[in-house]
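Input structure tokens:
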């Protein structure tokens, strides 16, 4: 009998393929000593409470002490987190992770006075304090706290709302428990003819199967389960929406969306522009869907036919060493300075490369202000992993530039701009591969990979964003968010997005019931805006548009020293206007046209 291949133990992985965490702390004993020091300083930080409004000097002292505490907390947190992620079966590092998580909560609790005390300083007094040269560095930091002052209630009211946090989270917690634990899925047949228990994870694999019967069964049986609980799931989603609307209303916002975007200082026109532009270009999605129908040779295209790869298995394969070399060639267009940091990451054991028993799945770039930008991968020799490498390295170099060009107070970047740096790298890789690969089969694969990514990020996430805004507005007008009401709207929305070539499968009207992002309060639109901005920026850079690269590097160095919208404007992308999206759709159309020609031969 053939021996089942086992993953190596952590101790069996060659050192060269592991990250070097001694760059953070030489030994675990050093970590433990620093952890105790941060604990002690956290106990002392409460002495600062009640002092911030006393004078400019007190405000400066308070802010610097709190930020210094957070800076050191992040360093111990990152060490424990990376140690735990490299082998989640290691009890010692599980303990470290639990300790730092608990400490992070304690620090957040102890410094919760920061914002309320700054907001309590009268405007004229604060203006006077800010004239002190010592506070010059912190002007934007303080402005980001006071920007929404009109929406902050008195301390007693804010305390009451904060205390109700667990109650407000009940709807999303209930959805999470039901979706991840309590839903019982049936058995289905996989590609090998084996019976497997369906789950959301298994569904993600089966819906990409080349066997249509496998896709159809998985699709229908998944939605049968959600259909049984549609009224419960409507109640949890309605509860979440009501929470968003209530909190926005009591804080004097016009809508839940206004509040959610104001937290990141994003004008609502960014959201509206995205929805308008995507709707204006739905004909491109309809064209892509029609191409899919033609290639699959189907009389009727169903929703379960949208994810099976059009071009079969990837015709490209890369070892990790080959991928590093290819990545550096692709990213050379970003200039020698950028490339020097890519080399630093690749050559100094900042990357934990291969899978081992107990290692966290997936991939990420992580670290803190005082550590290198580390990357966790679970390497497989394929083109998807090459894309993952350039994606995570995009985050890592962004972090490097930010930390080396900004003081700690601005040494991180907001979520709104985070994915732009990583996705720009992916788009640059796509452009490089299309310039260097001449085999029609390889080109077709790369084009389809890009188009599928565009479909899943810009079109699909904007569809979600439209639905999310619709249900918030409906609830605010007093409309009960029943399963029937939401399904009716979602079915029409889905038909509008995918067009006449896709059958109106009765199951798809329930898709709203299984999307965790609808519990994340106007989060999904950022995936679409980020991908659009990245498409625009990579196009400008690869075409050597004058000053495009300089502007891009300025964005990478900006951290959170400006609001996200201003940071992107400096990079050359005004996300309050449609131009960046128009450019992204032009690229999509060009590549769709090439794929249509290639596949018609």
């Amino acid at each position: 009998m053939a021996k089942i291949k086992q993953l190596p133990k952590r101790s069996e992985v060659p050192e060269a393929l592991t990250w070097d965490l001694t760059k953070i702390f030489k030994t675990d004993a050093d970590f433990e000593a620093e952890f105790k020091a941060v604990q002690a300083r956290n106990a002392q930080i409460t002495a600062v409470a009640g002092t911030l409004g006393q004078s400019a000097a007190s405000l400066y002292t308070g802010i610097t002490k709190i930020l210094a505490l957070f800076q050191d907390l992040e360093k111990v947190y990152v060490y424990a987190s990376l140690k735990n992620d490299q082998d989640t079966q290691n009890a010692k590092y599980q303990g470290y992770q639990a300790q730092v998580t608990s400490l992070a909560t304690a620090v957040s609790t102890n410094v919760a006075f920061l914002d309320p005390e700054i907001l309590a300083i009268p405007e004229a007094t604060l203006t006077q304090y800010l004239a002190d040269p010592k506070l010059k560095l912190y002007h934007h930091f303080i402005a980001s706290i006071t920007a929404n002052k009109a929406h902050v209630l008195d301390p007693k009211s804010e305390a009451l709302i904060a205390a109700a946090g667990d109650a407000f989270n009940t709807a999303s917690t209930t959805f999470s428990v039901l979706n991840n634990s309590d839903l019982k899925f049936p058995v289905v047949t996989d590609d090998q003819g084996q019976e497997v228990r369906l789950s959301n994870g298994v569904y993600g694999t089966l819906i990409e199967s080349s066997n249509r019967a496998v896709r159809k069964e998985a699709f229908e049986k998944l939605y049968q389960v959600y259909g049984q609980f549609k009224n419960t799931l409507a109640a949890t989603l309605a509860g979440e929406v009501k929470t968003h609307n209530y909190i926005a209303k009591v804080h004097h916002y016009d809508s839940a969306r206004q509040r959610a975007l104001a937290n990141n200082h994003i004008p609502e026109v960014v959201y509206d522009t995205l929805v308008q532009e995507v709707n204006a270009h739905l004909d491109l999605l309809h064209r892509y869907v029609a191409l899919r129908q033609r290639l699959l040779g189907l009389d009727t295209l169903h929703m379960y036919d949208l994810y099976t790869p059009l071009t079969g298995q990837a015709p490209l394969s890369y070892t990790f060493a080959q991928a590093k070399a290819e990545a550096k060639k692709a990213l050379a267009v970003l200039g020698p300075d950028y490339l020097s940091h890519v080399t630093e990451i690749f050559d100094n054991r900042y990357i934990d490369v291969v899978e081992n028993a107990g290692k966290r799945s997936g991939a990420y770039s992580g670290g803190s202000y005082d550590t290198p930008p580390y990357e966790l991968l679970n390497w497989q020799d394929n083109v998807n992993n090459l894309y993952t490498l350039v994606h995570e390295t995009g985050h890592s170099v962004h972090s490097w530039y930010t930390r080396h060009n900004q003081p700690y107070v601005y040494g991180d970047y907001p979520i709104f701009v985070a994915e732009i740096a990583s996705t720009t790298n992916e788009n640059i890789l796509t452009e490089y591969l299309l310039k260097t690969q001449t085999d029609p089969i390889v080109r077709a694969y790369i084009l389809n990979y890009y188009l599928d990514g565009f479909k899943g990020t810009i079109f699909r996430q904007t569809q979600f964003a439209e639905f999310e805004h619709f249900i918030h507005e409906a609830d605010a007008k007093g409309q009960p968010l029943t399963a029937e009401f939401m399904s009716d709207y979602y079915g029409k929305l889905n038909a509008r997005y995918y067009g006449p070539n896709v059958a109106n499968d009765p199951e798809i009207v329930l898709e709203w019931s299984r999307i965790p992002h609808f519990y994340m309060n106007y989060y999904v639109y950022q995936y679409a805006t980020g991908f659009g901005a990245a498409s625009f920026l990579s196009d400008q850079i690869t075409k050597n548009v004058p000053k495009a690269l300089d502007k891009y590097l300025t964005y990478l160095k900006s951290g959170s020293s400006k609001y996200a919208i201003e940071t992107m404007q400096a990079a050359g992308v005004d996300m309050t206007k449609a131009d960046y999206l128009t450019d992204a759709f032009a690229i999509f159309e060009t590549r769709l046209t090439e794929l249509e020609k290639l596949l018609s031969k």
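The chain has a mean pLDDT of 95. Residues 171 and 236 are 5 Å apart (CA to CA).
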